[in-house]
Design a protein that fits this description.
about 250 residues; mainly alpha; MetI-like fold; about 85% helix; elongated
């Protein structure tokens, strides 16, 4: 897992970032219109201006908390439902229908439907949950089904307590599947949650600020908020990866 992560970190080079920033700057100079494409310099200036505004941090906190709550619920229910599906084929068949529906239905359809039932302030919680739950559930279940049956049989023969089986057999086997699922679902949930806010327009959210920037043709601010969303997603994924690595080290007794 660590080797895969290190490879992914090396895929983006500084020279490549600088190259595309130059292309961006040249294209904005060619178009000569901040409405069509703001230059990187103006976007940075807009971002620096936002950093000193209290409502900027309030909007980030508003959106982050709700998306985080949705992800926590998805992780808990995904793990519980995967465990139930692993122990019961009937439950697995029963839950497969809503999971398939969630996977197949477009996000926009869910956003519009959910707006009928719940307030817009909580829309991003539910949408981020819907995006993460099927991925978490499916991957954890796949990890459980892929476990070594001989190892499990040996644990039953020697009557190893459930707590020790969870710590030394189940969790180490499932963690790589969960890590891949959570990394994917985290990114998806941030995108879908903010998309939901753009449609629902809850007051004080990042989605509302993005919509206002678009309405007033404030392209530099629109790009600035987009950068904020990307940074939030990256920081959250890095923090999550750090937590998983610490958990694995603790389980392995390092």
């Amino acid at each position: 897992m660590n080797s895969t992560t290190s490879k992914n970190k090396k895929t983006i080079r500084l020279w490549a970032v600088i190259f595309w920033l130059i292309i961006w700057q040249l294209l904005s100079m060619y178009l000569d219109s901040d409405i069509l494409l703001a230059s990187p310099i103006k976007v940075v200036k807009s971002l620096c201006g936002l950093l000193g505004v209290i409502s900027f941090w309030q909007s980030i906190l508003f959106t982050f908390i709700r998306i985080f709550i949705g992800l926590i619920i998805a992780n808990i229910l995904g793990a519980v439902f995967a465990a139930l599906s692993y122990t019961s084929i009937r439950f697995r068949e029963f839950i497969s229908v809503p999971v398939a529906v969630i996977k197949s239905t477009p996000v926009a359809s869910f956003i519009i439907l959910v707006l009928i039932w719940i307030p817009s302030r909580n829309l991003s919680v539910f949408i981020s949950f819907l995006m993460a739950f099927p991925v978490i559930y499916t991957n954890i279940l796949q990890g459980l089904l892929s476990m070594d049956e001989k190892m499990l049989e040996m644990a039953r023969v020697f009557k190893i307590p459930l707590r020790r089986r969870l710590r030394f057999i189940y969790i180490p086997e499932v963690i790589p599947f969960y890590h891949a699922a959570a990394t994917l679902s985290n990114a998806m949930s941030f995108k879908a949650g903010i998309a939901a806010e753009i449609i629902g327009l809850p007051q004080g959210s990042i989605g509302e600020r993005l919509y206002e920037a678009k309405i007033y043709l404030n392209t530099p601010e629109l790009f600035a908020w987009t950068i904020v969303i990307i940074v939030l997603s990256i920081v959250f994924n890095r923090a999550f990866a750090y937590f998983i690595n610490r958990l694995m080290n603790r389980i392995e007794g390092r």
